[in-house]
DNA sequence: GCGTGAACCATTTAAAGATTGGTTCAATTT
DNA sequence: AAATTGAACCAATCTTTAAATGGTTCACGC
């Protein structure tokens, strides 16, 4: 047995052992695994080797670790999601639209100043994807991606976090999204043109035009939402 | 002296004494008042009577109290601020100003639509307090309270949370705040006028004017900040 | 050169005690 | 009789200290 093969075997053995532990229920109710020191004893392996296995599992997304806190199975808690859940109780669809109308035009304007050519190409691609999606779910997905890309390319971390918060609240209101998805072909055509205008104004580096185009788009969405709500109440 | 008049005098005396304390600077930099037990000794009044005065001041919105924590002057922090802090955005001062310029004019506009008479009275009071503060710490405290009140009175929980996010980042940049505090009397006068205009436009229910007034105020702040930064780099 | 175990470092948690506002109760004053 | 008062008790928060836990470094052995 050549040493480097023995080592490779050892590494994958540890990895398999940790996986087995996770799958067989060696996990507390809150998803907490035994400590590194405990695991290294339990699996009869050095802590350093264990850490390499845990590194791999963390890279894979199976676990998350926090210094001082421990090692946990699953996704790390999302502070934005928790904040969104807390305020979502008091927020209705109109509040969401109001917040979007506050934040997203400004994001579009900043994006027009800061977007890179790669960003613009990706936006064009996404507009195309939205247009060509045959079902509403897919269109919604690409639509969300476009708005997130604009928010990111705006290059302001606070506004990006604020956008993420609005997005989180919005995406947790599924019944509203279902109404949004009941779009007529005529509305889809309008939105495509609006998306194209937004991206064109951003590509032109015209912050004022980008702001206005995004505002127009969201105002249209908002009016559509209000019309649907009024129809539902009669 | 009829007995019931003596009692009424005592109650209003305590109330006036606490007000005086607040206005004369018996407040820590974070807005914290002495504890109830300290105040009752300091003002030579029973704690029960003092609490009645504090109850009144709290009802009036001048102070807020939290069991186990203390008694504070100004507008309470938004409950979602704790969660906002966990999101852990890092940003420089210009990003903070950029985010404020995005969010706060819109908050002012919504506030102009939704503020109640009590809110307006409180805003006027806060503007007065900012103006009359003899040190920069106190001015900063009242200034923060005014902006928080406007954000709250805007009545959109999502934007309130977004504001809390910005406020959290901003309040963690203490060295920046020290620069802000190096304000000339001329600048203070300008800011007072701007604050007054903001509140007047809100009281008039003029959303567009309120938005413009807040934008003007923050643009002024932003320029001042940039000027200070450029001076520091030479 | 690589892996290992030990030592050290940085962050979080837990526990205990202290602090602070909130409430109740009995005694006193009005 | 009603209101006030001071003391006692309760509930929430803070502070301090030590322990726990992941993160990193270092010296040694293979």
From TrEMBL, chains A, B:
Any one GO molecular-function label of the UniProt entry: DNA binding
Domain HTH gntR-type: 8-76
Keywords: DNA-binding, Transcription, Transcription regulation
PROSITE patterns: HTH_GNTR
Alphabetical list of SMART domains matching this protein: FCD (SM00895), HTH_GNTR (SM00345)
SUPFAM superfamilies, sorted: GntR ligand-binding domain-like (SSF48008), Winged helix' DNA-binding domain (SSF46785)
Entry keyword annotation includes Transcription regulation: yes
Domain of life: Bacteria
Keyword Cell cycle: no
InterPro entries documented for this protein: GntR_C, TF_FadR/GntR_C, Tscrpt_reg_HTH_GntR, WH-like_DNA-bd_sf, WH_DNA-bd_sf
Record's protein name: Transcriptional regulator, GntR family
Native source organism of the sequence: Puniceibacterium sediminis
């Amino acid at each position: 047995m050549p040493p480097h093969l023995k080592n490779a075997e050892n590494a994958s053995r540890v990895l398999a052992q940790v996986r087995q532990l996770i799958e067989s229920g060696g996990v507390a109710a809150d998803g907490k695994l035994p400590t590194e020191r405990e695991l290294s004893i339990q699996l009869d392996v050095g802590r350093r080797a264990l850490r390499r296995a845990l590194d791999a599992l963390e890279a894979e997304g199976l676990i998350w670790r926090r210094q001082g806190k421990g090692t946990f199975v699953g996704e790390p808690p999302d502070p934005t999601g928790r904040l969104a859940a807390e305020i979502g109780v008091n927020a209705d669809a109109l509040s969401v639209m109001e917040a979007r109308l506050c934040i997203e035009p400004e994001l579009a304007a900043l994006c027009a100043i800061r977007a890179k050519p790669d960003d613009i190409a990706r936006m064009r691609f996404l507009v195309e994807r939205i247009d060509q999606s045959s079902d509403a779910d897919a269109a919604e997905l690409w639509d969300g991606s476009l708005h997130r890309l604009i928010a990111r390319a705006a290059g302001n971390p606070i506004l990006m976090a604020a956008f993420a918060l609005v997005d989180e609240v919005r995406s947790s209101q599924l019944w509203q999204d279902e109404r949004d998805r009941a779009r007529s072909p005529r509305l889809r055509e309008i939105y495509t043109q609006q998306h194209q205008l937004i991206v064109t104004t951003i590509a032109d580096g015209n912050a004022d035009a980008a702001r206005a185009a995004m505002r127009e788009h969201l105002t249209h969405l908002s009016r559509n939402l209000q019309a649907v709500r009024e129809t539902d109440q009669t």
